[in-house]
Structures are given as structure tokens and as C-alpha cells.
Amino acid sequence: MPLPSTMTPIATSYLASAASSVTFSNIPQTYSDLYLVCSTKAASANGSFLCRVGNGSVDTGSNYYFNVLEATSSVIRAAGAGGPETFGFLTGFWAMITSGNDVFVTSHFNNYSSTSQLKTWLSRGNIPSQWTDMSVSTWNSTSAINVISIVWNTSSTLAAGSTVSLYGIKAAS
Amino acid sequence: MTVITLKNKNYQSTLTAPFDIDLGGMIPLSTTTLSSTASTVTFSDIPQHYEHLHIRGIARTDRSLQNDILRWKFNSDTAANYSVHTFNGMGSTVESGGSTSQGYIQSYIIGANTATSNVFGMFVADILDYRNINKYKTLRQFAGIRDTGSNSNGAVISLSSGLWMSTSAITRIDLTSIGNYMSGSSFELYGIKRAGA
After folding, report:
1. Taking a C-beta distance cutoff of 8 angstroms, is the pair B83, B102 a contact?
2. Looking at beta carbons, which residues of chain B come within 8 Å of A110?
3. CB contact burial B130-151 (16+ within 10 A = b; e otherwise)
4. Which helix (H) or strand (E) holds B158?
């Protein structure tokens, strides 16, 4: 039986029509890390691009902390010490993402299936016409992550044609 | 006009013989997950048939701080052959820094022992062309820690770029910190293959 590849595509969501969120559920617990790749576009009203996780269901409580570092064409800034918030972060802390702009985000979730550590993820965001940013988010729970939901914080939607992919990364045993 | 034909343009698989196994391009080489404290994590006898190395992990040290540093050394070289630059967001503060002629690449950022229990920092790092004997070696690292609460020392996101001024192929990586890595810290090494390999 062939060995599985190290970076394995778990699921890809391709939006044939605009959607308010994308959720991956029942994430296998057989990998060491997860890698999330989002290629999307804001279809409607402006917003920030956020992430919630959970075990069994998405945690919408005030259980998230994050910090972000951003560079635009005119400013470099950081923020985020505070919280807790009801969401973790992907991209877009200060200015809202302009409707119609492309949004590219990649996120690493190391040790997502651990039951002894709080869950942290690192994200890199690129909105080519607005900013580039990076962030760290923590979910204040030792539960394993088996659901990830990507949402906007306003009534924005992900445009038709958006692609969101989740990969599992296996470590050497 | 020079036309370059890709040797493996229609490359489908590494299979060259019956029962060969195609492992893909990213190969897990070694994982170290600590069950007790350790001052150093070492990857030794690194195979020399990959193109790049990828290292990722989570870590927390036993020092009385909220965050801590990683120190990278290659091939047991402790001479002043390393330099680093960092770009960080700590709370609402943007920072940058750099050092040259160091005995290690010191990069940010992992967790330490005054952070909330069970909070670990995490990092992903790449060493491109690790076995090229015509180049110095470059490390690129993305890391962060976000503790619960509002202390900015526990809210750090960081990019680091390190240089080892040696043309030797990397056969060993030592990861140390000023303190000790705590139980639960995990370090994973991967080899990245080139096309056709």
C-alpha cells in the first residue's frame, strides 16, 4: 500500500455562488498540522476576514486572542494585545477589505489535534491593492480542532469563484 | 531566442520500477516531541539528497518570561559566522532588529513559562538550498505567540531572516534556547524534493 504524501489535501471548497462563510467539519485527527489556503474576493460590503475553530461545533464565544502586524503603502502598524474576542484572525484589522478586491491568506495550524495545549495559528494575508499582513491567533481551549470556519465580520460574502483548501501535514513518526 | 525544454515537463511520478512508492515532494525526516525538558534539540545526519529543508514546531521554555527565543546552529559551528534580522509586532509596537557576527541565528518567537499554562509559541522555517556548496545558507522563519490576556509580551508576531556564512552543506541543526524547552515542545524536519528527484 503506497504511503500517503506528507501534505495531503483534506478538502477544497469552491464557491459556485457567493457565500457568507466556508466551514470544514469532521477534520481528521491523523495529521500533526493543518495548512489553510484561501483565494477569495470580497463580493459585497467591506469586512475583515476572520476564523473560528472548535471541537464538534464552531466556538462563537469570547475565547480568542490575536495579534497582527500590517504594512500598507504608507504605514506599518501592529495591534491586538487585549481581548478576548469572539473570533480569531486571518486578515484585515484596520481598514476594511474593499469590495471586489482579491484576498489571499495562508494559515498554519501546528499541533491542531493536541489535547494538552491551547491552539495557535499563524496567518499571512495579502490584499494586493491594500496591504500585506501577518498575524498570530490563539483559541483558548485545549480541545482538538476538528472544525474550522472562515467568515467575514460584517455582512460581506466570499465571491463566487473563491477557493478555500485545507491540507493535512504529517510529521515523521 | 533560447528555448528551454523542461526535462520533466510531463512528469507524473517518481515511479521507475514496479512497487516503487511515490512519496511526493515533501518528506517527513524526523520529529522530536519532548516528554521532559531539554536544552537542545538536534537534527543530525540530515540526508543530502533533498533540495530544501522545512522545519516547523511549537515550543515553550522554562524561563520566567512570556516569550523566548530560538537559537539555530548548523554543523556544530559556534564561531561568529551568523547574522540575523527580525521584524516583529509586539502588542501595538512595531520593532525591527539585527545582529551580525554571532555564534548562532537568534530568532523570535516561542513561548516561555510565565505565559498561561499550555500556551506554546509556534514557528515555521525554511532553509533553501541547504546542501549547495557554492552559497551561504539562509534561514527564513515565521513565528508567533499569543498568550491569553492583554500583556504585549505575550502577543508577538515575527519574521526572521538568518544567514550562516558557510558554503558547507548542512548536515546538522541544533536548536537551543537560553533556557530549556519544556515537555510538549515539538520540532519537525522535512526534506523538500526537486522535480524529477
Report:
1. yes
2. 56-58, 122, 124, 186
3. bbeeeeebebebbbbbbbbbee
4. strand B155-164
Give the neighbor-by-neighbor strand order of the sheet with B67-74.
B38-43, B173-181, B67-74, B105-111
SS3 B108: strand
Shortest Cα distance, chain B CAs vs residue A146, angstroms: 19
Q: Which of A86, A91, A93 is nearest to A140 (CA)?
A: A86
Mean per-residue pLDDT, B29-52: 95
**Average model confidence (pLDDT) across chain B:** 88
The pLDDT of residue A93: 87
Rounded to the nearest 5 degrees, what angle is found at the Cα of B54, between the Cα atoms of B117 and A2?
Answer: 105
C-alpha cell at B149: 490576556
Query: Are the CB atoms for A55 and A44 separated by under 8 Å?
Result: no
Residue B138 bridge partners (DSSP): B128, B163
Q: pLDDT tens-digit profile of A86-128?
A: 999 999 888 778 888 899 999 999 999 999 999 999 999 999 8
pTM assigned to the model = 0.91
What are the cell numbers at A33?
498540522
Which of A89, A90, A119, A122 would you mutate first to test chain B, the one with the most B CBs within 10 A?
A122
Residues of A in contact with B47 (CB under 8 A): none
Query: Under a CB-based contact definition with an 8 Å cutoff, are residues A125 and A92 in contact?
Result: yes
* Grid cell 476594511 in the structure block, residue: A96
pLDDT at position B197 is 63
Under the banding of pLDDT at 50, 70 and 90, the label for residue A5 is low
Is B118's CB within 8 Å of A117's CB? yes
Nearest CA of chain B to the CA of A30: how many Å?
A: 15
- Would you call A136 an interface residue with chain B, using a CB distance cutoff of 8 Å? yes
Question: Pick from A69, A118, A122: which is nearest to B89 by CB?
Answer: A69
Helix/strand number for chain A, H first, E second: 0, 13
Query: A172 and B56: CB-CB below 8 Å?
Result: no
Q: What percent of chain B has pLDDT over 90?
A: 79
